[in-house]
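tokens incoming
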């Protein structure tokens, strides 16, 4: 029911009405033109058919004449070739003269434009003792020698340079018909006859030119050579009598060949074939005109509306980019400009909101930076107090220096990311303090795979909370231990491993470290520090980077940091 209504609605559109008017007008013109043309077809059909046949025959005959001229030239050249003459005139057989003659004739054969039609090229001296044979004859051919030469001489005894018919190849078991040509071999000194050249041309020299020949239904092609006449069927020449002149169009050529094409009754009497062709042409023109009209309407109406519809859908999906293709000088273009203005306004609002969110996150980031070390600072000051009271050691100056460097880096440097070498320097200062605090019970080792990794960018204070967590929650509960930091590279990523041989963590404790902290929930400093570093790395580099933890309770804990290598 809905489909029926949509079809009726489509028929009422302006587009469908214009198309209907154009088709009706074209049909009326087609009827008038066809009626007048039918008379012209009846009058000129026969003359056109004859002229077309003569033209086609002339083209084919020219192509055949070109190849035959190449064959004539090759045969004459062989009859005057100096190397062949030297080989035939020699008093005794010479392999060198034989090879020289063969190579020279082969070179000339391959340089001939029509060499592919040379089935056999045989050059024999007058005593039938020296024979040269070239061509594209099959390998299954009977060998040619002075004993089998009579087979050729018998079938080609009356052959001259112009074609006079076709013969069967005497050296092949399977039927293969050739067009023979022959001429004399002359002595290069006194020009006396010292041999003969027999050139056997394949009949494909003729039939290949007719493969694309447009032959009307009911017509036949004939070719005459001297007194012989043949009907051409595909690639075969069948002996046949020449058709009468009243039923055929013939074209004779100086090369001795005569091509003929019979004309069917349909071509010599008035038929409606031309009229039907004209009708078909008019129908095609109507179809082309309709298509052009539809394309014009699509370009001016349908496509602009489609672009508007697509742009509105893109805006709904979040694509607020400017689209110039929906704007033009017509009414639809005005609507398009309004859609682009709406898109730009929405984009400005979104960008403003994003800028506010980014500013908020920057403030939160700075607040986290200022809160990252209170626990560490209190313990350090406590250690300094007891060292000053009980030991009066010179290490107090070193601890105070390290502490001042840490406080300076934390309070004055507002960069989000720093080179890895600066972060490792912060750790060195941090561990100087921890070494005095724990009295050498905590060992700290650093292994960097290559110096170029020291230039990799990392969020500030990303490693110190992790090392601090390894000491306080891993090594300190068991009294002593080692913290090892290793930096390596995997493809385009930087891998940092912080390993301690402390008390370890269970799977539940690891999961709790990365769990979000609800408002009002209490969490350990280690939880806050690790989760904060993880979120800061993802904020800077993307969610595919961050922290992961491997641990075995009572044995070790490894915190893996993955981030892209950016120098």
């Amino acid at each position: 029911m809905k489909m029926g209504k949509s079809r009726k609605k489509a028929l009422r559109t302006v587009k469908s009405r214009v198309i209907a008017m154009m088709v009706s007008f074209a049909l009326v013109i087609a009827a008038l033109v066809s009626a007048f043309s039918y008379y012209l077809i009846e009058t000129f059909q026969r003359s056109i058919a004859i002229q077309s046949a003569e033209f086609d025959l002339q083209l084919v005959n020219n192509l055949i004449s070109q190849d035959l001229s190449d064959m004539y030239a090759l045969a004459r050249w062989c009859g005057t070739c100096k190397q062949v003459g030297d080989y035939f005139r020699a008093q005794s057989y010479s392999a060198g003269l034989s090879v020289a003659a063969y190579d020279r004739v082969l070179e000339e054969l391959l340089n001939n434009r029509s060499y592919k039609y040379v089935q056999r090229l045989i050059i024999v001296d007058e005593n039938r003792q020296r024979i040269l044979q070239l061509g594209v004859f099959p390998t299954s051919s009977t060998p040619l020698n002075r004993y089998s030469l009579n087979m050729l001489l018998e079938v080609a005894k009356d052959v001259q340079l112009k074609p006079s018919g076709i013969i069967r190849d005497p050296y092949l078991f399977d039927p293969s018909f050739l067009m023979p040509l022959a001429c004399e071999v002359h002595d290069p000194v006194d020009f006396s006859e010292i041999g003969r050249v027999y050139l056997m041309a394949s009949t494909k020299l003729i039939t290949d030119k007719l493969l694309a020949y447009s032959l009307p239904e009911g017509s036949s092609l004939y070719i005459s050579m001297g007194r012989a006449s043949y009907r051409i069927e595909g690639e075969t020449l069948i002996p046949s009598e020449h058709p009468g002149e009243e039923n055929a169009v013939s074209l004779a050529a100086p090369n001795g060949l005569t091509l003929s094409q019979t004309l069917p009754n349909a071509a010599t009497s008035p038929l409606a074939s031309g009229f039907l062709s004209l009708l078909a042409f008019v129908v095609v023109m109507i179809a082309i005109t309709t298509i052009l009209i539809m394309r014009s309407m699509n370009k001016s109406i349908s496509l602009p509306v489609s672009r508007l519809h697509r742009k509105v859908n893109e805006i709904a999906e979040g694509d607020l980019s400017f689209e110039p293709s929906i704007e033009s000088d017509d009414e639809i273009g005005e609507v398009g400009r309004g859609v682009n203005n709406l898109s730009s306004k929405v984009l400005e609002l979104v960008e403003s909101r994003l800028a506010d969110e980014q500013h908020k996150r920057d403030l939160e980031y700075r607040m986290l930076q200022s809160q990252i070390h209170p626990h560490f600072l209190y313990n350090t000051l406590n250690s300094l107090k007891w060292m000053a009271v009980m030991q009066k050691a010179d290490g107090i100056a070193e601890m105070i220096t390290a502490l001042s460097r840490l406080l300076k880096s934390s309070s004055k440097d507002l960069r989000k990311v720093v080179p890895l070498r600066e972060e490792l320097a912060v750790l060195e200062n941090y561990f100087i303090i921890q070494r005095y605090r724990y009295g050498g019970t905590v060992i700290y080792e650093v292994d960097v795979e290559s110096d170029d990794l020291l230039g990799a960018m990392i969020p500030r204070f990303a490693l110190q909370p992790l090392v601090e967590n390894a000491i306080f929650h891993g090594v300190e509960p068991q009294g002593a231990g080692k913290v090892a930091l290793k930096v390596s590279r995997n493809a385009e990523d930087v891998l940092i491993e912080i390993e301690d041989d402390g008390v370890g963590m269970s799977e539940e404790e690891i999961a709790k470290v990365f769990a979000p902290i609800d408002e009002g929930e209490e969490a350990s400093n280690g939880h806050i520090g690790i989760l904060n570093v993880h979120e800061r790395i993802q904020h800077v580099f993307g969610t595919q980077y961050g922290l992961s933890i491997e641990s075995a309770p009572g044995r070790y804990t490894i915190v893996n940091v993955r981030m892209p290598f950016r120098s």
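note: DSSP finds 15 helices and 17 strands in the chain.
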